[in-house]
Amino acid sequence: MNQAINDPSSEGDARQASTLPEITRVPTLWTFVGLVCGLGLGLLLAVRAPGALAPVLAVVEPVGDMWLRALRATIIPLVVSLLFMGVVQTVAAARAGAMARRALGWFYLILAGGSAMAWAVTPALLALIPSPPGAAAALRAGLDSTKADAAGPLPGAGDFVASFVPANVFSAAANDAILPLLLFTAIFAVAAARLGTRHRESLLTFFEAIGGATLIVVGWILWTAPVGVFALSLAVAAKTGTAAIGALAHYVLIVTLTGTVMFLAAYPIAVIFGRQRLGAFARAVIPAQALALSTQSSLASLPAMLGACRQLGVRDRAAEFTLPLAVALFRGTGPAMNFAVAIYLAHWLGVPVDGWHMAAGFAVASVMSFGAVSLPGAISLVTSCGPIALAMGVPVGPLALLVAVEVLPDLMRTLGNVTLDVAVTTVVDAMPGLDDEASD
């Protein structure tokens, strides 16, 4: 493969591959403190000193809006560069042999299945566990202050299908036409993979440079997250009262439950397709799961995952090839949880999303997983969920507020990713013809 990736899941490990720079570690604790302080001060002002709200909001609203705009400005260049690198890397991996192609096929089957599951399950969860009364409406009113650049009217089916091919890719980027932009990027990356080594490496270096520089900028922006989140949450709490707290808690619950479905799906995958006994698989993965929860890193859990595979009788050849490939390219919970975030944003903001645009969200969620590298959860929330929301015609502004609580769903992301990595490795090992295949 063209580059080694430390941990590509949407998790709290900020270490990067040698081809990408170290970015400023997101101050997760201080960001959460900023959220709590902003909500608390906003509630206090609304209850005890309503007369002081106007001058305070006159200061904090422009600060929050400026921080939000800076964060959003990085989405397009970062997403395009990371997707290009991910597709080129995937194509290179597919050339490594039949085992690699089988593993990649299972990776994408699970990723697309996760997106489909989120499409069905997240709206059902929202109906089964509704948000606190009045919370969504109140939060919509409060989030108007973020100037979230609401999407315009949704096009009809004919215009939607025609938009898959952009007349001008730069115009598509400028207008946040994310689906045609990503389709063009993916096709361009596949074409680049067919070039000679010199030209392919030149393009890869170009996109790595763009992605690396943008990551540094994102790191700088998110280093100021405590201030930005404080300003946004103060403004929202001042206008919505306790509804903001209830809505954030409800968001964490719904997205985490969607991720839990993917986590639980690893067990039948291992039993049915990996030919493992349920009890044996459950016991074997416990050490890797414990390490995943403590480190929030799939890479750090790799030795424990290898140990689990040995305990399950998976051949070393399959485990030592498939697990590193899974850590590099497979974020099992990513599409499901990222799609769930976008669906929840639409629910929050009262944005109607028709079937065509849900399909667009499904497509982007399934593809963008191959463009994710090892980033802190806060950055992955923006780079992975932002394109999905844009494809669905949903404003991405509220993502800036969700950065502060991403550490909680991120635990389920890591737990599910590690469990699915082991499950899919058992499936690859159980497939016939392994002994006849070269591992590279």
List the helices and strands and how they pair.
Elements: H1 28-48, H2 53-73, H3 75-94, H4 98-128, H5 135-143, H6 157-162, H7 169-174, H8 178-192, H9 197-223, H10 225-240, H11 243-273, H12 278-295, H13 302-311, H14 316-329, H15 334-349, H16 355-368, H17 377-391, H18 399-402, H19 407-430
Helix pairs in contact: 1-10, 2-10, 3-8, 3-9, 3-17, 4-11, 4-14, 4-15, 4-16, 4-19, 5-10, 5-11, 11-15, 11-19, 12-13, 12-19, 13-14, 13-19, 14-19, 15-16, 15-17, 16-17
Provide structural commentary.
With 440 residues, the chain is an all-alpha fold. The chain is 72% helix and 0% strand. It is built from 19 helices and no strands. It has helices at 28-48, 53-73, 75-94, 98-128, 135-143, 157-162, 169-174, 178-192, 197-223, 225-240, 243-273, 278-295, 302-311, 316-329, 334-349, 355-368, 377-391, 399-402, 407-430. Helix 13 (302-311) packs antiparallel against helix 14 (316-329). The relative contact order is 0.21.
